[in-house]
Specification:
The chain is α/β, with parallel strands linked by helices. The chain contains eleven helices and twelve strands. The chain has helices at residues 19-36, 59-62, 71-77, 100-110, 115-128, 152-165, 179-188, 218-232, 244-247, 249-252, 273-276; strands at 7-12, 39-44, 63-65, 82-84, 111-113, 134-139, 171-176, 194-196, 237-240, 257-260, 283-284, 293-294.
């Protein structure tokens, strides 16, 4: 970084973790740059989300960097780029504790979501036409081993109890990597309209989509993830299973109330999930007990 005249140039070349896991790494790099007065120059080159027609850096597909200098000057300064493929490759300075509010502030300080992505989110939200609060539901099913799997029936029962308690909820927005879960919720919820995005890709056979290479479009997978997370961030309450995607809804808006259906196992208790568990209004509704309970200080 000294040789780069204050530019922190990092290439993340990972093909094993999903969109928001890699965005977590970016957030830590932004935090490091803020602490040390550096300018970040991040390239995401793992081929899970690459599109040969859109360029070699998939970060640029979805985000604009809020850099204080022109791209030409940035490129002129960079002599060395740190190439990493795993989180630990970043070294000890990275991975410091952040609050949800810190994460949101740092994100908006260093990057902006591309206008075409924001337009998709705005247009979908208008089609819902809900004149009041919306309840969000995110169910992560395929390849999710960081926490115990939750049954669809438990998710539905939790949703129905919340709707009974909150007659002001006008609609339900559902996001999931499992096509059958989307249909289950659409068929089961009777007293509120249910909306979901027509994603490019969703699993119909139990195989994960987000880390599949070559079989489905790289750009479209990232678009699906980002748009759904931003839509979930517009909901007033979020019923969710552990997942980076819906956890990042709290980075876009840390004020959302969360009803958590499962917790990650201790060794997988990463940011921002660890901070969501500390929120005063987070409720944990485990399937074993079936009753909501505040979880502040329970870890």
């Amino acid at each position: 970084m000294r040789a780069n005249d204050g530019v922190c140039a990092v290439e993340i070349a990972n093909r094993h973790v999903g969109f928001f896991a890699q965005m977590n790494w970016c957030l830590y790099i932004f935090h490091h740059c803020e602490q040390h007065g550096l300018i970040p120059d991040i390239r995401l080159t793992g081929d899970v989300y690459l599109d040969p027609f859109r360029g070699p850096n998939w970060f640029d597909y979805y985000f604009d960097a809020c850099n204080p200098m022109a791209p030409q000057e940035l490129a002129r300064r960079v002599r060395y780029t740190k190439r990493i493929s795993e989180f630990q490759d970043m070294g000890r300075p990275f991975g410091a504790a952040l609050s949800l509010e810190d994460g949101a502030r740092i994100l908006h300080k260093f990057i902006r979501v591309k206008p075409h992505i924001v337009k998709m989110v705005d247009e979908f939200w208008r089609t819902c036409g809900a004149d009041g609060p919306v309840l969000g539901v995110h169910f992560r099913g395929t390849d999710k081993s960081e926490g115990p799997r939750v049954s669809w029936d438990h998710c539905l029962a939790t949703l129905e109890r919340h709707l009974q308690d909150r007659p002001d909820i006008r609609a339900v927005f559902v996001a999931s990597d499992e096509q059958a879960f989307i249909q289950f919720m659409a068929n089961s919820v009777k007293d509120r309209p249910v909306y979901w995005r027509d994603d490019h890709h969703r699993s119909s056979d139990g195989r994960p989509i987000h880390t599949t290479i070559g079989e489905v479009g790289g750009y479209e997978k990232g678009e699906d993830a980002l748009v759904n997370a931003m839509l979930l961030s517009r909901c007033s309450t979020l019923i969710r299973t552990t997942s980076f995607l819906s956890a990042w809804a709290l980075i876009f808006d840390p004020t959302i109330k969360v009803i958590l259906l499962n917790k990650p196992y201790e060794k997988f208790l990463w940011y921002p999930e660890s901070e969501i568990l500390k929120k005063r209004d987070t409720e944990y509704v485990p399937e074993t007990y079936g009753e909501s309970s505040p979880i502040t200080g329970s870890l």
